[in-house]
Amino acid sequence: MLETRSATVEAEASRLNEIALPHGTQVLVLFGSQDINGPTVDRLFARYPSVRHVVLEDGGYLPWLQSFDAFRAELCAFFGC
Q1: What 3-state DSSP class applies to 16?
Q2: Given CB 3.0 to 4.6 Å as the disulfide criterion, which of 16, 28, 32, 75 pairs with 47?
Q3: Helix, strand, or coil here: 56?
Q4: Beta-carbon count within 10 A of 43 CB
Q5: CA-based Rg of the chain, rounded to a whole angstrom?
Q6: Cα(52)–Cα(63) distance, integer angstroms
Q7: pTM, entire model
Q8: How far is it, in rounded angstroms, from Cα 38 to Cα 35?
Q9: Three-state secondary structure of 20-53
Q10: What residues make up the domain containing 67?
Q11: What is the DSSP string of 4-24?
Q12: Taking a C-beta distance cutoff of 8 angstroms, is the pair 58, 33 a contact?
């Protein structure tokens, strides 16, 4: 099972090079600190250093449920609620 998961993470991360952001695009990347996709997060942050990166402490795979208030606050800060 762990080998399958590792292969999936590697495949997903390798696709990041195929995605280019047009100049001026605003992007929010939001993860929970306990998210199961941790290795992909580091690659995502490295690939797109100019986008807004937020890691919610104590959040997991479902940060909108596990860290609702912090998640909502970050969305409102990004979108201007």
Answers
A1: helix
A2: 16
A3: strand
A4: 16
A5: 14
A6: 16
A7: 0.66
A8: 6
A9: CCCCCCCCEEEEECCCCCHHHHHHHHHHCCCCEE
A10: 2-19+26-79
A11: HHHHHHHHHHHGGGG--PPTT
A12: yes
At 50, list the tokens: 């100019």
Give the number of domains in the chain: 1
34, 60 contact by CB (below 8 A): yes
Place of tokens 């605003």: 26
Name the token pair of 21: 């952001």
Convert the pLDDT of each residue in 42-71 to its tens digit: 777 888 888 888 888 888 888 889 889 999
Q: How far apart are CA 36 and CA 33, in angstroms?
A: 9
Positive or negative CA dihedral for 52, 58, 60, 62? Answer: negative
